[in-house]
């Protein structure tokens, strides 16, 4: 299959694509490959982010009252494990693969900011430790679901009781 190459050219303030009939130079091919790698990395990063956000939204939208009445903590555990695993996967990718390659000059500052974020966000630390607990113990993180009336009668507070081994 014959490939046709064009290059973007700005001449006299006009933007045009010009056909290159003799193919790309080695420099142009190298630049094209680098751009392609950046685009693929960005797509992978956005896909991983979307998966993480979707798993959080599924957890947030679950009807805990209905599951509790059915005595189903397995589905709650599944959703919690899915979210914390996807979040850890995304964070690890950023920390180990993306940041060192694409912001290598700022990697030390990146690590400092990540550490500060961990220190000041209890919910992040909880998810981090829950994920490690599940990964290394093989036990389920949520032992029980308790509901209490909310301040507004139409609302219910849902409390997820952690497995004692998590603590």
In brief, what are we looking at here?
This protein is 61% helix and 17% strand. It has helices spanning 26-61, 64-69, 73-102, 107-120, 122-137; strands spanning 5-11, 14-20, 142-149, 156-162. Strands 1-2 form a two-stranded antiparallel ribbon.
Helix content: 55-70%
* N-end to C-end Cα span: 61 Å
What letter string, H or E per element, gives the SSE order? EEHHHHHEE
Instruction: Specify the overall morphology.
Output: elongated
Q: Give the percentage of residues in beta strands.
A: 15-25%
Instruction: Give me the number of helical elements.
Output: 5
Query: Radius of gyration, rounded?
Result: 24 Å
Average pLDDT metric:
83
Q: Uncertain segments of ≥5 residues (pLDDT<50)?
A: none
SS content category:
alpha+beta
Oligomeric form: single chain
Strand order of the largest sheet: 1-2
Largest sheet: 2 strands, antiparallel
Task: Please give the number of β-strands.
Answer: 4
